Every structure is written in structure tokens, then in C-alpha cells.
Structure prediction request, 232 residues.
Amino acid sequence: MAVCNHNEEHARAAEQAKRNMPSEEEVGRVAACFKALSEPARLKILFALRGGEMCVYHIVEAVGGNQSAVSHQLRTLRAAGIVRTRRDGQNIVYSLADAHVIAVLELACAHLQCKI
Amino acid sequence: MAVCNHNEEHARAAEQAKRNMPSEEEVGRVAACFKALSEPARLKILFALRGGEMCVYHIVEAVGGNQSAVSHQLRTLRAAGIVRTRRDGQNIVYSLADAHVIAVLELACAHLQCKI
DNA sequence: TTATCATATGAATAACTGTTCATATATTAT
DNA sequence: ATAATATATGAACAGTTATTCATATGATAA
Prediction:
């Protein structure tokens, strides 16, 4: 592989890209965030929580699957800062962490041209 | 596990969530989209392409790593509809597929409060 | 305190994914 | 044609991740 000589613009874009590249640490955090969104089972939970907060039992109702799997998925989402929790007696109530979550989902759906 | 009786709102939210849940197929497509964004190596390519289109050689320059790995990453991004290509002589020139891509990255960064 | 309900967790297995190495294809130049 | 350049691809291995099963924790009720 040798230098691509015939397009100076690419070379400038590459240099600029290198200068503006976020740090490894930042790129890693963004990637971790998207990784949490990359499983159908977890996305279903987020779609379910659009309508408002729910306890684990009802999340299981809404998305199907078994309790343990859903609990593991919730932990992943929580660790990624995508959902948050509060305790209400015996129940743990989950909700979307902030408005960015819905916004990202809607953007992705717009990109794919699927109505949700 | 038994029914969560003490919160009727959760039950309504669960029923509503089930009604409004996108199809398996749609959820799968959204998940695939995010999966493509979930690797640091691929995200770096997208950050690099913010400044404009580039051929593979310069993408390798900009993000580091070896040619084969970058090519595989590009294929994944292309298959997910996140970048697109055109041929220019010996080179294949890559660019972001549409404005949604930048928008999603910026939203994620806003969510994480990191400036990019 | 004991029993029950709601949720979380650890370990194990199975499935998936990324990277590397070697090589193939396609384009241009000689 | 032949060589060189630019990019892509298949196979194999290594690392990661999701699910399941069994069990643990924490909260309430009896």
C-alpha cells in the first residue's frame, strides 16, 4: 500500500481528522453507550419505557422473556447510564435516564425510515 | 414471581407498551444499526469522516490500525447503511450516508457530556 | 420470626464478533 | 501483457457477550 497521491483533499481531511479525533477514552465511552443499545432485547425494554416508568415485573410482561434475562439486561442499561431506578417498596422502578435516549431512538428510526 | 398489584399505572404502561412495541423485524434493524456504532474502531472512522469524504488509505492514516481491519470495519459500516462509497479510479471513497449519522453521534456525546 | 414476593447475581455454556494473515480482485501505469 | 497500487475477502483464532439455571438478597406481611 502506498500513498494516495491523486487527491490532496483526502490528505488534508485525514490530517484534520487526526487533529480532531476524540481521545481513546471518549471514543470508548461513546462506543459503550451504543453497545448497550445494540441488542434487540434491550431495545425492547427502552421502547417499553417510552410510555413511562415500570417495575421489573411489568417490564417482563411488556417485552417477554424470563425474569433473570431481563434483570441482566436492565443492569447493562443501568450501567450504561441509559435507564435509572428508584425503589418503591418491594419493587424497583425503571425509567429512561433522560430525553436524549428517546431522541437517539427516534433518530435511528428516522434513519431507517421505520415508524415507531 | 407474582403480579405487582400495588401499582395499576405500571400495568397500564405495560399493556400500552405491548401494543406500541415495534415488530421484531424493526427492533432488529434498529439494533443492527446501533451495533455498527458500538465499536471504538468503527466510531473513529465516523469521526474521521465528519470532515469530508476520504479514500481507504487516508482513513487508515487518520484512525491507525492495519488496512485489512479497516476494510472489514468499513464493510460493516456500509452494510449497516451508515457510510456509502463511490469509486474514483483506483480508490474507493467513503463518506457518511446522511445527516442522521452526525446527529446521532452528537446526541450521544451530549448525553455523555463529552465535547467532540 | 417465618414465609412470601420482587429483584439481583454468579457461574457455566453457547453464540457472536473483531482482528490477523494470506490471498484475491480491480484499476492504472509501463 | 506485466507490474504495481488500492481495496476487499475468507478462514481461523481469540476475546466478548447473552442466556440459562440455581441461588441470594432485600422488603413486606402474617
